[in-house]
Description:
36% of the residues lie in helices and 14% in strands. It is of the alpha/beta class. Helix 2 (35-48) packs parallel to helix 3 (67-82). It is globular. The two termini are 33 Å apart. This is Cob(I)yrinic acid a,c-diamide adenosyltransferase. Pfam families: CobA_CobO_BtuR. Keywords: Transferase. Residues 1-22 are annotated as: Disordered.
Amino acid sequence: MPQGQPSVVPDDSLTTRQRRNRPLLLVHTGDGKGKSTAAFGLALRGWNQGFRIGVFQFVKSAKWRIGEQTVLERLGDLHTETGEGGPVEWHKMGSGWSWSRKAGSDADHAQAAAEGWTEIKRRLAAESHQLYILDEFTYPINWGWVDIDDVVETLTNRPGHQHVVITGRRADPKLTEIADLVTEMQKIKHPMDAGQKGQRGIEW
C-alpha cells in the first residue's frame, strides 16, 4: 500500500468515501506479546476522534487493574468533565461483570462469558458504542463457552457504524475469515525466556 493507496479497488459500486468509512472487524491473534496493547492503542485513537468506546475483558481477573484501564477511564472522566474525546466504559468478567456485580469463581466463568457475550449482542443491536474491544475473546470461543457461529452471524450483521476489535491466541478460522484485518503477533524473543518476570510499565 504505497502512500496509503490500496493495491486493489473492488468493483462493489461504493464510492471511495463509502468504502473508506465502512465499519471494521479487527482480530489480533498469535502467540506474541502486544495483541491487547495494540487494541488499547487503537482505543486511544478512537477516543481522540470522539468515539464511544466499550472495553470488555474476558478471562482477566477483576482484581488485576492494567495501566491502560486507568488511562482510558481517566480519559472517559475527562470527556464527562469537558466534552473532549468520547465516553469510555470498561468491564471485566473476572468476578462478575460490572453491570451484575456478582461474585465469581472458576465454575462461574463459562456462564459469565456467555452473559458477557449476550450483553455485547444487546449493545451491538442498540449501537451503543462505536468501538468495541473484546479482549481475550478468542479463549471463551475456543473453550466452547460462546458459540462461534453466533459470533460470526452477529458481527457480520451488526448495524450502523461499529468497529470491533477481538484479541487472543488461536483465533477461530471462522472469525479470521470474516475479519477485515487480521494481525498475527509472532514471538521471536521474550524476556521471560531468560527467566525475567514481567515489570511495571511494560506488562501492566
